[in-house]
Amino acid sequence: MSNDDNKKVVITDDQYKKLNWYYNELCLGLLLNDSFLLNNLNLLGNLSVAVLNLLDNFNLEITSIDENFTFMEVYDKAKEVIKEIKPEYLEDYNKLIDSGILDFNYERLDIPLEERSKFGQSVFYPYYKADEDNTRIPEMDNIYIDETFNYDAVAVLVHEYFHRTNESNSTARYLLTEYISSYFEIYTYEYLKKQGVDPSRLNLAFRLYDLKKCADFLDFESFYMYTYETLGGFNDNNFEYINYSKLSENQHKENLLSILERFERCEEEYNKQDEREKEPSKFKYYLASKCNSHYRYFIGALLAYYSLYNLDKEDVLRLNEEFRKVDSMNFSEALDILGVELNDELISKSLDAVEKYAQENNLLKDKEANKKM
After folding, report:
1. Residue 118's closest CA among 61, 182, 51, 171?
2. Residue 207 has pLDDT above 80, yes or no
3. What pTM did the predictor assign?
4. Where are the alpha helices (DSSP H) in the chain?
5. Which of 2, 17, 144, 358 ranks highest by number of CB atoms within 10 Å?
6. Contact 207, 301 (CB under 8 A)
7. d(CA 301, CA 357)
8. What digits encode the pLDDT tens for the residues 334-353?
9. Looking only at Cα atoms, what is the longest distance across the chain?
């Protein structure tokens, strides 16, 4: 490849400088608060490709299903599930109505359900302020549900409620909280089916849809982060070393610019916060949390499907309880509580579980193949 060819992918020196600064801040934030991603970029990149290839065989369409439940019907149906999971959680769950912590976002009800399903249905929103020692103090913990009132709203509410049950400062919690909530979301669908709810009334493909979306993004992002770490930064001479999936020079340039634009948007959002929260020294943590949350959903979903077939709910509840007891727990320690180890067997069984779930719920693109299962 000639130097002239390399020049096709050049962005300006200022853009390179800014892009490398963002990646440096991002990696520092991850190194200090969430090193798992940095330590496993190659593994996660390869695993994301495997997930994409697997899920390409399935129909993950999100359908609009309107049951017209009332607020209290959704609340009571979720309450029934939570009681079956762990009755001790009911006292706290019942306080959600009286305290106003649980809220449905009625402003988004004019958006079609299928569109809301694709771009996020709900959020557990813990808002924190810092005391003089920069200790995080919970100021309010609201659960906002962006939904029409159907069976999916029940699963969403259970998912978000479990975020509330394990709020802590543990780094491993930051990574695995989506696992716990995703597991009990899937568990809710399994419970509803056992109670006689017609599977056609449930969006059983939603978590798989989200897994595929996260895998696609992780495949892209892990490659560029790995490239930054390996080459020590981006410049106009390194394209020949990162010719990824027959990437053209123009595609590479467009990718770099899109990453830079995303970082810039993130910085703009950060700077809109109050003065105390937007201290320059904290930007690295904000960037790490905002730009790489997809991999938590990715790992969370894979472990959730694995656990559905290989663990009991008591195993997941045990981890959930441990998060509330400790301020520090690494990823390996969390997996030890589950009785599993991050190895090839876990990865293989997780992929098998995803495939088994999709097949059991008749999500194969070839409907005739479903009938033979």
Report:
1. 61
2. yes
3. 0.85
4. 3-6, 13-33, 35-39, 41-55, 71-85, 90-99, 113-119, 151-165, 171-194, 206-231, 249-271, 283-291, 294-310, 313-325, 331-338, 344-360, 367-372
5. 358
6. yes
7. 12
8. 999 999 999 999 999 999 99
9. 69
